Amino acid sequence: MNTSKFKYLIALTLLLSVISSCKEDEEPLPEPETPVVMFNFADPAAGATYSAGDTVAINGMISFENDMHGYEISIINTSHSDTVVFNKHEHMDGKMFHIHEHWVNNVMHHSNMQLKIEALTDHAGTRETKTINFHCHPM
User: Fold this and answer.
1) SS3 string of 90-128?
2) pLDDT 10s digits, 30-48
3) Residue 29: inside a domain, yes or no?
4) What's the number of domains the chain is made of?
5) Given 77, 101, 102, 125, which is the most exposed site by the fewest CB atoms within 10 A?
6) Quick check: is 31 in a domain?
7) Which structural domain, as residue segments, surrounds residue 102?
8) What pLDDT sits at residue 20?
9) Is residue 85 part of a domain?
10) What is the signed CA dihedral for 84, 108, 115, 125, rounded to 10 degrees?
């Protein structure tokens, strides 16, 4: 009987070690990745300088793996009380938006400017933002 009890004890020990080792090897499931809005803008170039009367072209693309619900672009004069000198809001649905706009430099003082591009990723107002800084010379 000692041999059968001993074999039973060894079998039970092996079973418990297999069960506990299986649980230790389990890794938590990875969290799903959050989709990222892609901004690809050729104009204006970061750090570009525009003379009086120059046209500042705004050319680029916004893309997202889910449907977006529009975009907003603004040019802000950060040297003078964050004055918005250009604003365009488009409400449309799609996974990709091509943007082709322009603004003519009419500032009265040397001004640091910021193009702010906001992708509206849902109807609740969630936004992803990209900024491009440039400089304008006065008229």
Assistant:
1) ECCCEEEEEEEEEEECCCCCCEEEEEEEEEECCCCCCEE
2) 777 778 999 999 999 999 9
3) no
4) 1
5) 125
6) no
7) 38-136
8) 62
9) yes
10) 0
CATH number at 73 reads 2.60.40.10
Q: How many CB atoms lie within 10 A of CB 137?
A: 15
Q: In the sheet that 94-104 helps form, which strands lie side by side, from edge to edge?
A: 38-43, 55-68, 94-104
> How far is the C-alpha of 22 from the C-alpha of 31, rounded, in Å?
22
Question: Cα separation of 130 and 128, whole Å?
Answer: 7
pLDDT of 103 over the 70 cut: yes
Residue 12 CA: distances (Å) to CA of 15, 38, 98: 5, 57, 67
114 within some domain:
yes
Q: What is the pLDDT of residue 115?
A: 98
At 40 the three-state DSSP class reads strand
Which amino acid belongs to residue 64?
F
Beta-bridge partner residues of 136: 50, 111
Pairing mode, if any, of strands 49-50 and 83-90? unpaired
Place of tokens 């997202």: 64
Distances (CA, A) of 31 to 28, 34, 92: 9, 9, 30
